[in-house]
Amino acid sequence: MPVPADAPFLRACRAEPGPTVPVWFMRQAGRSLPEYREVRGEGSILDAIRIPDLATEITLQPVRRYGVDAAVLYSDIVTPVAAIGFGVDITPGVGPVVERPFASAADLERLRPLEPEVDLPYVLETVGNLVHELDEVPLVGFAGAPFTVASYLVEGAPTRTWTKTKALMHTDPGLWEALVDRLADQALASLRAQVGAGASAVQLFDSWAGALTPSDYERFALPASTKVLEGVADLGVPRVHFGVATGELLPLMQQAGADVVGVDWRVPLDAARARLAPDTVLQGNLDPALVVAGWEPTAEGARDVLRRNDGHPGHIFNLGHGVLPETDPEVLERLVELVHDEGRADAQPSLLGAEAPS
Amino acid sequence: MPVPADAPFLRACRAEPGPTVPVWFMRQAGRSLPEYREVRGEGSILDAIRIPDLATEITLQPVRRYGVDAAVLYSDIVTPVAAIGFGVDITPGVGPVVERPFASAADLERLRPLEPEVDLPYVLETVGNLVHELDEVPLVGFAGAPFTVASYLVEGAPTRTWTKTKALMHTDPGLWEALVDRLADQALASLRAQVGAGASAVQLFDSWAGALTPSDYERFALPASTKVLEGVADLGVPRVHFGVATGELLPLMQQAGADVVGVDWRVPLDAARARLAPDTVLQGNLDPALVVAGWEPTAEGARDVLRRNDGHPGHIFNLGHGVLPETDPEVLERLVELVHDEGRADAQPSLLGAEAPS
């Protein structure tokens, strides 16, 4: 059965009032789940992604356990560059590590166009499996935004300063533009193929965009991200755009072609919406560390998020970044219940008067 | 000769128009300078700090080379907790590492009150030396804010998620408050002693405050930082308050008792001032990675900072975070010249009409 157009997640993406506040969690599939650790074994996530039955199972696990309103494909933002042989791997506990970082025009040749059916057949098979298994639950496909993927390729390893990346964009803007343009084409091809295989929505992860000043973001990141988001506009699926520490970038990230703006935990939802058009759909934004702290801080924080959203129908509840590995799944399970139970009243302010004590 | 009250840095702290826009750089003394690497040798920074002649020389090096408008004491925010024997060291390339992290009420006993004259005589000797050597250049003393120092003690090592710290504050707020209260007393004692020895201004570094939501900052960090800043109010020296990724926290950080609000590079100065009282004095905020990228990006970025300050007399030029080790000192040298030359016109908008081409 196809995903109904009035699935809570899809309604919220259109800012249509629904019976519940939809909720899913970035990185909901992963190390926090015992059933994940059981099936996953050792080895790189990039190897696990290449096994459709495994990636399907891992994607489904949190949907079964939590009853979330969306599934998110078990994959990684470096999957496309790894698939075309750029020499990227993900070191557990470290992150993406690049054998020969991107440093000069000659490295552009190592970034040929992505052909999803040829380069990522296993991803498309996983998406196909999932669409069948998920039934009425929407699947969120995703890609890494050109800036963030480029920063991995240029730095070679996780960084706290993005020094090489910023040096490249400022000292050789032509080369930088060529780099992010190729990565934009890859992200676009990947997202189109995921939607073609049945994904109901897409999210562009620009995880580290918040490292940039607004003017650098506008000049060096926005054009390529716009190419990706505008390039899927004709597919008619909601486009979510997310990064961390992006308080000053939210209007630009919306302008890139986002239907839904993801907000990290640093910016209260009311402050975020005040910087954007009033009808903006927001996704977020409970601090993932609160969930690790336990149920009471989680419940308190979640109620604060709902209160700051103030019943706006354009709200998809999520964490402000990915689920942390130390998370107790039972807390997330109760969190989904809380959002569904208490968010409902919030999403239908017209009912509040009748329910309030006189 | 004492520092004159009309030193450019001190005038700007009072938002008084001056002949130049003052400039200094966080971490201006350090690995980016060849003369630093020459005198510094191997070993922990905490050992170097214990040698007043060495710490004095290192503090003076950037003042000599760059002609900056303030010196900043060569020390570290964990100096006080290390001095009372909490078991903290700074691992090169990693950061503060704690042998036995803070985990329970019993650990409070390891945080006895700081007696600066007994515990940090070498720091006070360095300050005394510097005041003599610096002549008319103000010395900025500093301390780590209770939240940031506590996060080092609780995590035991640098973190990207502050999971243990946030868990402690939410699950045992009483213990958390006792912890940051002790650290506030230490910071206060250290700052008062530094001013007593001759420092002309103080900066409270809450480097990682931006990891907190505004409501968590208000509840768990603001009271202790207020205790520190209000506790030096009677000394009559300007109080600077700085952290990274604090766009949403700026009004609270000002409210804590700051005369000058430090701004990281993510928030343009005009956006920062729009969130604060119009007469607010700001310090910042060129992206330190631009300086590594070279002179052209540095000049362009510096002019953008000056333009966004729009001639406001309450502006101290600085980077948005510390000088990166890869920085070429010649670029910083030219940057000081640019700010002094071009910021001057900016700081005296009344002169602009006469100087502008007709």
Automatic annotation (TrEMBL), chains A, B:
Give me the residues that bind substrate, please.
R27, Q28, A29, G30, R31, D76, Y152, S207, H321
Q: Has keyword Lyase?
A: yes
Q: Where are the transmembrane segments?
A: none
Site entry (Transition state stabilizer), positions: D76
A GO biological process of this protein is: protoporphyrinogen IX biosynthetic process
Please, which domain of life does this record's source organism belong to? Bacteria
- The signal peptide here is none
What job does the chain carry out?
A: Catalyzes the decarboxylation of four acetate groups of uroporphyrinogen-III to yield coproporphyrinogen-III.
Recorded protein name is Uroporphyrinogen decarboxylase
Q: Which organism is it from?
A: Iamia majanohamensis
